[in-house]
Amino acid sequence: MIGVYSSSANVSERLAAPPSLAISTVIFALRPSAATARPTLWMPLVRRIREPFKGQWALPGGPLSHTESLQDAASRNLRETTGLAPSYLEQLYAFGGLHRSPTQRVVSIVYWALVQPTEAALAAESENVKWFRADRLDQLAFDHNDIVDYALGRLRSKVAYSSVAYHLLGEYFTLAQLREVYEAVLDRQLDPANFRRQVRSTPEIQETDQYLQGGKHRPPRLYRFTGRPGLDQDNRSTP
Amino acid sequence: MIGVYSSSANVSERLAAPPSLAISTVIFALRPSAATARPTLWMPLVRRIREPFKGQWALPGGPLSHTESLQDAASRNLRETTGLAPSYLEQLYAFGGLHRSPTQRVVSIVYWALVQPTEAALAAESENVKWFRADRLDQLAFDHNDIVDYALGRLRSKVAYSSVAYHLLGEYFTLAQLREVYEAVLDRQLDPANFRRQVRSTPEIQETDQYLQGGKHRPPRLYRFTGRPGLDQDNRSTP
DNA sequence: TTAGTTCAGGTCAAATTGACTATAACTAAG
DNA sequence: CTTAGTTATAGTCAATTTGACCTGAACTAA
What we know:
2 copies of one chain form a homodimer.
Chain A: H1 11-16, E1 20-32, E2 39-47, E3 57-58, E4 61-63, H2 70-82, E5 88-95, E6 106-114, H3 117-122, E7 129-133, H4 144-161, E8 172-174, H5 175-186, H6 192-200, E9 205-211, E10 221-225
Parallel strand pairs in A: 1-6
Antiparallel strand pairs in A: 1-2, 1-4, 2-3, 2-7, 5-6, 8-10, 9-10
Chain A binds a DNA duplex through α6.
């Protein structure tokens, strides 16, 4: 009885079928942009190997298996398609417009993830998995451009009022690196001195007695984020 | 081919089936609490007329028809089960835990709504539809207590940083009435003078030359909210 | 040795917030 | 008719936060 609405069914049968349910993920990571040394937001996309939108780039995603929760499905799919283990994962939105897919009604529950630079660096690229700058995407499959825009908005607002930015960095970071994250996400310059004052006043930030060596100028102090990780129970918000 | 997983299928068949998709809504309205005159948050619930959880109270909801968007489904279901037309409607969260329903895997896309007092007053109560205080619910069906808690959290945070509170009031209101909304939702007292100063500094608030008559004391001025309504295209956030 | 750059710590005025006081305008009790 | 009681409205003042800016420290590279 499973798979009744598989590829053997014709289009009208699929349109009449109950909406199918898929999980997709928008994955953000920081990478140095090509020209300048400043980090910018990148995301991995997968090439579609079947119709519709065959050959076009799309968000990693897949069907929801009946033995896993939504978050587990997003996490698994992330790992399988891109090899990445995110440091932050949160539900974004359920997209259920009528004509998202030309061949059938699909409701996509979309998650968004942040991965640390080390993770992002060793993520394998291939013929069908490539990284793109989040702010310079061309036409994606389905409504995935809209979804990415929505995710970018969520990332920006969350960076502004919560402490998600740390999940785009490794364990130790300098205040300049942290500021560059904010500048990349919010897309505006921040005053280094005022930024420093603000960050140092948050209790979750711990100063270490380590300094980053090898730079061209005065070695900056390294800091740590001691808040709770982005993957624990409380991040799921709900059972 | 439609309806394969209907009530004629047995439990194991339903558990193996693809997760079914439902839409539910958490509806908030302000009503005067029984004892004091202060308004408090209430919500309509519907009694389940079939298993599982037969006889228990639950959030209004139903299946997603394939000809309507998620928001339209929520809106229609709201109207059909409670007769209400909300002044604000927004997606809350997609709940997809494995054991939300004992008999089958259900993924619920939950919306939350605000309705104005006039609407809420003439909403019909019946044997199977009753209003309850949002902060004093006993055991609901499924995981609906968790969902209500999550919706309350969202309402509180949105009231604090956005202008949703106005959708719990009618077109004209006094600053005291508005303050009572904030106090009911945030569950703490606010200084009337400071609250007044803040509200009057927001450009979306327009003072009228009308005063509320018939009170016991000095008649307060009436104000209007001129921001955009809670149901337009932009509230949907996404296509 | 020196110029150039970033790091780090600080000042200062403007804006915002919370606590509080005073007056105005009405109702209801006497 | 007068006055006490209550809410509406307006304002003050200190504490806190924010944005703009300055100065010296610490390093590299020429």
